[in-house]
Task: inverse folding
């Protein structure tokens, strides 16, 4: 049985250099049980790929993803406390607090839908009918012109700008729900505030992550078998630094 809902824990401002250590610390957590991490993340990625191929089911990915992320946070937390883990942790988040995690997924889905609508409206205002023609030409296999590529770059820039606040709001949210027992909407808001207050460490984390992403892609993308679980472990490490280990539901 879940304990009573709690308020969000206080946010700590970490030093800029700490952001560069999250992947290192994540790798150390990963190495405590590498096989379980690889199996869990491979199962998760395969599930996402399969669902993405089904038109109606693809929209469920965003709704259920926080639950799986929470399970991986619980796995990292267990390892940090010297406990053993198994692949069952992948579903543990749903078992402990499925209502709030699914609520977070719905919030994420609604926010992402709004972002897509805003992006489409802005691109239409800037490019008008030319953008629709660009998409049609690409679907028809026409080699893109410089003008077509410019339109696509504009769309990607708008999407990246609008999506960044959503990513910030989702970064800590599953951890706050499953480890601190915070309600979905409060976790969503608190995560954004925490990322905003630690923007420099996150920029450094992003730069370090970009380097490792490039390296992981070189050997036929095989490096992602390790990088993806290390990434989830690094999310947990960032939660420990920013919020401290004041857990409620994981005890």
Result:
């Amino acid at each position: 049985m879940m304990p009573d809902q709690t308020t969000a824990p206080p946010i700590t401002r970490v030093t800029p250099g700490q952001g560069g250590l999250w992947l290192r610390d994540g790798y150390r957590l990963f190495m405590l049980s590498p096989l379980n991490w690889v199996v869990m993340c491979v199962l998760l990625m395969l599930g996402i790929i399969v669902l993405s191929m089904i038109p109606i089911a693809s929209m469920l990915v965003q709704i259920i993803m926080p639950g799986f992320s929470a399970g991986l946070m619980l796995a990292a937390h267990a390892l940090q406390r010297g406990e053993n883990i198994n692949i069952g942790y992948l579903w543990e988040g749903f078992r402990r607090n499925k209502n709030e995690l699914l609520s977070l997924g719905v919030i994420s889905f609604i926010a992402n839908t709004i972002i897509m609508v805003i992006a489409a409206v802005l691109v239409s205002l800037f490019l008008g009918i030319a953008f629709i023609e660009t998409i049609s030409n690409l679907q028809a296999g026409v080699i893109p012109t410089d003008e077509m590529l410019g339109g696509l770059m504009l769309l990607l820039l708008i999407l990246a700008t609008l999506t960044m606040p959503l990513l910030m709001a989702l970064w800590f949210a599953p951890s706050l729900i499953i480890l601190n027992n915070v309600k979905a909407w409060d976790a969503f808001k608190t995560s954004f505030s925490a990322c905003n207050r630690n923007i420099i460490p996150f920029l450094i984390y992003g730069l370090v992550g970009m380097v490792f992403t490039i390296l992981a892609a070189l050997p036929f993308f095989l490096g992602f078998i390790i990088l993806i679980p290390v990434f989830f472990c690094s999310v947990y490490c960032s939660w420990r630094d920013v919020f401290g280990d004041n857990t409620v539901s994981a005890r």
About this structure: The chain has a mean pLDDT of 89. The radius of gyration is 19 Å. Residues 16-98+172-243 form one domain.
